[in-house]
Amino acid sequence: SEKMQRRESSKTLKQPLQVHCKNQSDLSAWLRGERIDCEKSVQNHQYPNDQKIVSKQDSLEQALSYFEKVQDRVSLKKNGVLQKHLTTVESIALQRGLPPEGFDVLLNVALSGKLADTVNTRLLKSLVPASVIPETSVVSSVSWLCVGKCSSNIQLLFLRWLITVFDFIDRKEQLRALYGFFFSFLQDEKMCPYICHLLYLLTKKESVKPFRIRRLLDLQAKMGMQPHLQALLSLYKLFCPELVAITLPGKMKTYFKNSEGPWKAAINTVRQRNQENSPVAQTLFLRAAQPQSRKRKWNTQLIIPASSTSKNNLEGIRGKNCVDLCSTNESFPVEQLQTFSQLLQNIHHLEFPAQMGSVLTNPLLLHYMNCIKDESIYLRLYYWMGQTLQEECTWCVADNNQYEEEFKDFLETVYKAECFLQEGFSSCEEFLYKSLPLWNGFCCRSQILRLVSWIPLSSFSEMKSHLCDPLAQLFFTSSLYFKCSVIESLKELLQNWLNWHVIHLDAEPDSQVHSLNTTLSGVVNIVAELIHFVGWISTVALRLESNPTFLLYFILDFYEIVCDMYLRYNLPLLVMPPAGVFYPALLSMDSVSLNQLCYIMYRYRTNLVAAKDNELSKKKILQFKFSSETYQEYNRYIIAMVGCLWTSSVFQKDIHPQGLCMDYELLKKTAVQEFKAGFNIVYHPAMMGYALLFLREASPGDTTFNFSLIKKWNWYLEYLYAQSLKGLKVFIESSINRVSQASN
């Protein structure tokens, strides 16, 4: 029929993107959002809503055909046909997104200057991809920038669109070939920030040339230290440090302005609407890790797109094996990377995808990052991650509340990647410093506190103002569970810092200087500051919550790491717990807390003795000495513990300023019998249960339960040791001089 002929002729005018897969899509399939099998597509064109689909298809084809044939400048107000087709494109773009074959026509007409800027602006804002954008369409549209037919505002809008949809472009080879052309636009002050952003995305090592570095330095001298220029210079310096001699800020920052404009929300809407039914986007992506069902832009980047390598290259790879590829200079596409042996064979031929988010879910690429310390990869990942965290944060951006669950998943993915690499991302640190002052302590709590545990070792002064202070405010005003979660997170942070120290000390055993320009004394000071901070908030929290056993467990767990730093982590530092932690644990009514405190004091003694032996024998590896105050504090605590648990003299001999020493007359007024022995291993509230069970076993018929009958403490101690009180056992055996069992 005439209608069918028109549709066929319209299709021949375009060059639709050919997707090399079993399931191929056409325009009607895209409109309906369903999968069409290549073998059955001719037979199965009868859909329930066939008339509606054909109508939409005809409308879009008519609109594209109209814009393709526009020759003269047309006024929007006086042309109803133009208004109709423009509305059609906008409506379909916001509903389903545009098919790949539509971009060539719309980009060319928008940048050709044939229509008014108001029309061109509306066309550019409607360029929302349903799947991918053909590279040929982008390259063709870039050529219009040479002739100057479009206004500067349209050029800026086009660049912003190009940056926003960069990850949707199917290939990048021809676009990278235009690197010099884009670079020439840096002289335009309005376009410079967006050109730098685009160049940042396109830059490879071969793009770095001395004349380009000189040009950037000249621009920096003229414009000042602009963040977009610093970003490009930083990337250049990573690729060719010998060519960029100037010092650039080491801290990651927000280099570029938000370029996403109206497209981000539209892309999210289209993705969400097409999520369940649209196979177009799904068939254009190859899964690299676990299946994802993400809707947001950053989540679509957690998979590796097949478009990161050209179709011809993919077809050639299918006919080769990995060993053949190793003998050539061809890059190995990461979407073909399936096994660890492939990674080893092609480790020098891998080219990371433009979508750096896909790296986070691919263990093989994370292995690559661990093995090949390519700073450019980290910089690209940090840039992408920093931008994403800032823009998707649900409590920093008001409109993002509906995406909290997806943001949780993203933070979880970042955390797992940090655990895999065993190092924190500086972009996460920057995000935490900026967002924690605005955080309510509830949204994404588990994920945020996990990210805190991977903050890299850095200056504590900055960490205190940006992390510790806002965290302390939330800590003191939140629930008991939140307090325990924070202590646990800071314990993991300390553990990660100490592991980092051990790794770098093993790598450079004779050096007193670590990487990150952190000296050993600097590491000691930073770790000590963190421990003092935890001691302070722990003391306050125990008072606020009336010394709960649950909280005390997490605090003592933290000090189990602190007490062993010298021997286990080779760090010349020991910090005693504050009295506000020590005495609540000593007087706790829970035997687990008391046993844990005994073990901690035993390990403190072991570390201090080792340090003193090293100092006296002058065989110490590290040129540090513990202060006399540390030994004095330990001795005061030991006197209190022995007087409490063993000699029943704690009220007379405890010499700590915040200790238990009390006047005899005051103690008599309490009317407590045997108050002197009130906290020894028999009468201690945490030990009474064991004493009761011991008496029941020793005298089954006695119902008086007279604790004074427990006189042979050796038998009682053996009973306690059999109850898995290992901490109490090692403390008594190491810190108390007992009469030998033989003499007894």
Span between N and C termini? 114 Å
Given helix and strand content, the structural type is mainly alpha
| Helicity, as a percent range | 55-70%
Strand neighbour order, sheet with most strands: 1-2
Give a quick account of the main beta sheet: strands, pairing sense, barrel closure: 2 strands, antiparallel
How many individual helices?
38
What's the alpha carbon Rg, rounded to whole Å?
A: 35 Å
Number of strands: 4
Pfam families: CENP-I
Protein name: Centromere protein I
Keywords: Centromere, Chromosome, Nucleus
Subcellular location: Chromosome, Centromere; Nucleus
Summarize the structure.
One of its GO terms (cellular component) is inner kinetochore. The protein is 58% helix and 1% strand.
What tags apply to this protein structure?
single chain, 744 residues, mainly alpha, two-stranded antiparallel sheet, 58% helix, 1% strand, disordered N terminus, disordered C terminus
Provide an overview of this structure.
Its main location: nucleus. Belongs to the CENP-I/CTF3 family. This is Centromere protein I. InterPro entries: CENP-I. Keywords: Centromere, Chromosome, Nucleus. The strands form 2 sheets. Strands 1-2 form a two-stranded antiparallel ribbon. It has a two-stranded parallel ribbon with strand order 3-4. With 744 residues, the chain is mainly α. It is elongated and about 110 Å long. 58% of the residues lie in helices and 1% in strands. The chain contains 38 helices and 4 strands. Helix 12 (192-202) runs parallel beside helix 14 (227-239), helix 28 (520-544) packs antiparallel against helix 29 (549-562) and helix 32 crosses helix 38. Among the domains are: 52-243, no CATH class; 348-383 and 411-422, no CATH class; 478-507 and 516-611.
